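Technical annex, item 7. During the second reporting period the consortium partners agreed on a shared format for inverse folding records so that results from different sites could be compared directly. Each record opens with the tokenized structure and is followed by the designed sequence. A conforming record, contributed by the partner at site C, is shown below for reference.
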């Protein structure tokens, strides 16, 4: 019988450390060819939109789908998890928090393999619903000494810095503008919904690693052309999905002679097949769109933990 797992259950059962492990494991399965990922599809209506994406982890006997709606009022996320052997529905999970964790964890894994080992300062552009897990994940894979944060809402920016300083026991301070945050960081994260670039390549110091996670539609951009032109390595989660969703790349790769041929998938770096950086002075970029593989990997862990700890409510 399937179980229903609420947002509260997911928050209790999925710490960031496990999310990092599960995302990295799913990338290795992706590289081995034992994982299947299907890109996001969207139904766009005047007041509401439906988004859905699916994946399978055959080594773990799991397959599933994430489906969510976006309206003027709110976003609603759900993951359906199935047994890959017999098709039985195993669990329905509320997946807002799960989505934030897996997106943060993916940036953490990218940072682990692409940032300089001595990277210790983070510049964060954005203080919204994804920024918290971005900061937490990066802090798990690099020993951060300080963080500077910029977002357009000054009150939210200051409150975010106060909360994250307390939560992570780390010096998180507001920055006066995006340029200040970017020039500060050995690692720079953009987590915005901007339609125009918020990060300029001219602001990036040599050796900086960038996680660009906020723009997953073709009419949005966080990085300007120069940020992409300067990058020694550009990685994505899925080239297929990035071609459909990554406005940063769809518009900005014209600044690179080889265009899409220059792009690698993150699993190639995590597996060791491709270098995450070729030199200490390289600028590196991970452009995240967010793939279903991570949702299924994280949901599978939550489901197994729920069974062990007798959490969740039986349905059906």
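Designed sequence (site C submission):
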């Amino acid at each position: 019988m399937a179980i229903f797992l609420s947002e509260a259950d997911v928050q209790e059962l999925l710490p960031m450390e496990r999310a990092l492990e599960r995302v990295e494991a799913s990338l290795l399965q992706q590289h081995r060819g034992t994982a299947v990922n299907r890109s996001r599809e969207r139904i766009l209506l005047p007041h509401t939109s439906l988004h859905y994406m699916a994946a399978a982890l055959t080594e773990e006997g799991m397959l599933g789908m994430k489906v969510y709606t976006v309206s003027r009022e709110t976003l609603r996320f759900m993951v359906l998890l199935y047994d890959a052997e017999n098709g039985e529905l195993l669990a329905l999970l509320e997946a807002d928090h799960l989505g934030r964790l897996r997106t943060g964890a993916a940036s953490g894994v990218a940072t682990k393999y692409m940032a300089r080992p001595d990277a210790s300062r983070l510049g964060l552009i954005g203080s919204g619903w994804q920024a918290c897990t971005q900061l937490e994940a990066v802090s798990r894979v690099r020993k951060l000494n300080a963080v500077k944060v910029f977002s357009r809402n000054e009150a939210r920016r200051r409150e975010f810095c106060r909360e994250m300083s307390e939560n992570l026991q780390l010096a998180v301070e507001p920055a006066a503008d995006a340029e200040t945050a970017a020039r500060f960081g050995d690692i720079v994260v953009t987590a915005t919904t901007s339609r125009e670039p918020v990060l300029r390549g001219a602001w990036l110091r040599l050796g900086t690693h960038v996680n660009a996670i906020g723009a997953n539609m073709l009419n949005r951009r966080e990085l300007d052309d120069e940020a992409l032109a300067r990058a020694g390595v550009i990685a994505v989660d899925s080239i297929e999905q990035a071609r459909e969703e990554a406005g940063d790349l769809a518009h900005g790769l014209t600044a690179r002679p080889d265009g899409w041929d220059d792009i690698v998938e993150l699993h190639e770096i995590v597996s060791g097949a491709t270098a995450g950086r070729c030199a200490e002075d390289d600028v590196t970029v991970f452009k995240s769109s967010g793939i279903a593989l991570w949702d299924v990997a994280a949901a599978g862990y939550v489901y197994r933990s729920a069974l062990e700890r007798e959490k969740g409510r039986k349905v059906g």
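The mean pLDDT is 97. The first strand starts at residue 3 and ends at 5. All partners now use this format for quarterly exchanges.
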